[in-house]
Design a protein that fits this description.
The chain has one domain (4-97). Helix content is 74%, strand content 0%. The chain has five helices and no strands. The longest helix is centred in the C-terminal third of the chain and has 26 residues, at 72-97. The radius of gyration is 13 Å and the shape is globular.
């Protein structure tokens, strides 16, 4: 079960998996997060939140994938994921400024 630190990243992984954008956690780490293959499992097992750089990578990659998607429904869901990541990024960076 996800804790507060990992709930967000687990939700994004689950949705990208359900959409068929990724087939494995390793693929999610690389394709969506721009990180090493084991990144996701390390973040979740250590109950850590994704870093600002990870969130930037996720947002950029989801935007790129969503923009190229032909199915309107799938495109909409991917771009909604992008917006969730951007909101998380904004929240995280606002906290750093205080």
């Amino acid at each position: 079960m996800a804790n507060n630190g990992t709930a967000f990243i687990e939700e994004i992984y689950g949705q990208t998996y359900q959409l068929g954008l990724v087939e494995t956690q390793d693929q999610f780490s690389q394709k969506i997060c721009g990180k090493s293959p084991r990144w996701y499992s390390v973040v979740v097992s250590n109950s850590r939140e994704p870093s600002v750089s990870s969130l930037w990578n996720m947002a950029a990659n989801l935007n790129k994938i969503g923009s190229a998607e032909r199915s309107r429904n799938t495109k909409r869901v991917i771009l909604e994921l992008h917006d969730k990541v951007m909101a998380k990024l904004q929240d995280k960076t606002i906290h750093y400024e205080v």
